[in-house]
Known about the structure:
The protein has helices at residues 3-13, 46-49, 58-68, 81-91, 106-121, 138-143, 147-150, 168-174, 198-211, 280-295, 298-314, 340-348, 371-384, and strands at 25-29, 32-35, 40-43, 97-103, 125-129, 160-163, 179-184, 187-188, 194-195, 214-218, 242-245, 256-261, 321-327, 330-335, 351-352, 354-356, 360-363.
Amino acid sequence: MNTDWIIATESKHTSGLYGKQNFVIVRGQGALLWDSEGNEYIDCSAGHGVANLGHAHPKVAAALAEQATRLITLFETFPNDQRALLMEKLTALTPGLERVFFCNSGTEANEAAIKFSRVSTGRTGIVAAMRGFHGRTLGALSATWNKKYREAFEPLVPDYQHVPFNNVEALDAALGENTAAVLLEAIQGEGGVYPADPAFLQAARQLCTERGAMLVIDEVQSGFGRTGKMFAYQHFGVVPDMVCVAKSLAGGVPIGAVLLGEEVKNLAPGLHGSTFGGNPLSMAAGVAALSAMQEEDLPRQAAEKGEYLMEKLHGISSPLVREVRGMGLMVGMELKQKVAPYLKALQERRIIALNAGLTTIRLLPPLVITYEQMDEVVSALQTVLNG
Ligand SMILES: *Cc1c(COP(=O)(O)O)cnc(C)c1O
């Protein structure tokens, strides 16, 4: 297929919701992507944190091919071998959370957790954080902070409040008799790559327990090894009531899930559900992906490579850099100015990176990125930030 035709056709038929690039990606492997002209890119976006295992992982591909010839769809009322396996493997990663609800995306996982908080507590209030991002459907969007995502769709769902992230006093003041849940990221992604203070998450746990609210942690971006542990909350010594996951759980195949602690109750048949949730194809991909993550010890890779990358980034001397922060391979480099031109300059050097807000460059590479590839990224950043 002709490159110009592909770009023109997408441009003609696009909804308008995406600012499109002017090249066509056709293939990926590990941390690399290739365009239709054969150019190679180092991918530091990983589909916004989806491709933790790298692109086109052979074990995920094989599991998909095998399952596709056996059974693709099955409603969750019918038990299935792949679903049972994934339930067992997934809940083994989250001690204290033994049950799981499957859906198809991150926003759906948060949406479900919000509904489950309401039916578990008989309350309606949700306390979320400023700069937080939880998705685009109306319930999850109501918990999302940025005006850019919210304003056009108001009025949103009532009884949501936002407190400053890492401010224990404000959280304490916000948690009232009608609070069903506190919904937080353990490290904020879209909002600028800000890790939680341990004291803040620990206070959130204690306040929720004392006042009968659910603590829901959104691990959609930070999950599955990204921060150096399987889940970011596991750095903080807390056990949430619900953990929302999605992006990298099935190696790139659409999936979402909510892991449920003992306080989550009243989930009766028919109260909530999903047509595609728990389908054998995604489940088989999830089983293969989790096995590969464990075999390749992705959390350790992210911890070691993250430390290396962070040290190199701290070593970049440029008057433009305000701060480098992050956990594992979830890294933010905040500049003193807008990052858009620098992301473009990186792309001209065939490095794909993300923004987080207007002034932070965000690096979310596949956790299988090599040290040589990280060196190339750092050297390109060094050049671009001094150009
Ligand atoms: C990406 C993201 C979501 C939304 O996930 P979708 O699959 O796009 O709906 C929710 N929460 C966080 C923290 C995310 O990074």
